[in-house]
Write a structure and sequence with these properties.
By secondary structure, this protein is of the alpha/beta class. The protein has a 5-stranded mixed sheet. Strands 1-3-6 form a 3-stranded mixed sheet, with no helix packed on it.
Length: 147
């Protein structure tokens, strides 16, 4: 039988810990910034965001969604982004009870970044017209975030 050698464990422990930390560092550096709708599309009326989200999955914890708005001027249509409470609110475009994140006026032509911090489902919609842009304008999507 082999003798128990504490020295061998002490020598290899730092190597094992180093390898494990490398694995975890690789996982955290794979996070992506994902433009909502795709590169150059932006957050606008009539685009099929639910279809885009379905084709763009999977989404992972620490990925970031970038909602891009055109610069506002006197003639610009205002859009907003709400984080909806649940799937029923998403399916029926119920904005009430959702969390306001940003609108095109406050974004002022700059992207709004939303970090996906937890593994679960998120539902987003435009709240303009108390859900009209969500319902008629297709400005809604949901993402399932994986660990």
């Amino acid at each position: 039988m082999a003798d128990f050698n504490v020295y061998g464990y002490i020598v290899f422990l730092p190597l094992i810990l180093s390898l494990l930390s490398s694995v975890f560092m690789v996982q955290t550096t794979n996070a992506k910034v994902i433009p909502v709708g795709g590169e150059g599309v932006g957050w606008l009326y009539g685009f099929k965001y639910a279809e885009w989200a379905s084709k763009s999955s999977p989404f992972h914890v620490n990925d970031t969604l970038a909602f891009e708005f055109p610069a506002t001027n006197g003639n610009s249509i205002i859009h907003s982004v709400y984080l909806l409470k649940n799937k029923m609110h998403y399916e029926n475009c119920i904005i009430a009870g959702g969390s306001f994140l940003v609108d095109s006026t406050t974004a002022n032509g700059k992207p709004y970044y939303f970090k996906l911090r937890k593994a679960h489902r998120y539902y987003f919609a435009c709240g303009v017209g108390n859900g009209t842009h969500c319902n008629v304008g297709l400005m809604k999507f949901g993402v399932r975030v994986l660990p």
